[in-house]
Write a structure and sequence with these properties.
The protein is α+β, with helices and mostly antiparallel strands. Helix content is 27%, strand content 35%. A hairpin with a 2-residue loop joins β2 and β3.
């Protein structure tokens, strides 16, 4: 059974920016927990060439209704032109952990809505 929670994966080019994003998401209650995994190797195609970089990986645990808040926050703090921001549904898990996740995140989005009720980015 699907839960109202997501995991988000973000790669970041340096530990300072990764820490800034992780701390800001948790302090703002956009995420209950962010794991920072240093020194992952990433291979990718950029501007027609295969590149290799050393990056940090953030694993962000959040609510589905905070997806746009998390994405907006990451984009504001990130140094990449096209940051990797991938969301995956959490279909099931330890109920006590999921309850803790919910208790430590905002219940609603902070993104303003237009008159039709749609989120404005």
């Amino acid at each position: 059974m699907a839960t109202p929670y997501l995991m988000c994966f973000v790669t970041v080019g340096d530990a300072h920016t990764a820490s800034l994003i992780a701390r800001g998401l948790v302090e703002g209650k956009f995420a209950a927990c962010v794991n920072l995994i240093p020194k992952v190797s990433s291979f990718y195609r950029w501007q027609g060439k295969v590149e290799k970089s050393s990056e940090c990986l953030l694993i962000i645990k959040t609510r589905k209704n905070l997806l746009q808040d998390v994405e907006q926050f990451v984009k504001r703090k990130h140094t990449y032109t096209v940051p990797e921001i991938l969301f995956l549904n959490i279909d099931d898990g330890n109920k006590e952990y999921l309850n803790w996740l919910g208790a430590n995140t905002l219940f609603t989005t902070n993104i303003p809505k237009d008159k039709s009720g749609k989120n404005i980015l």
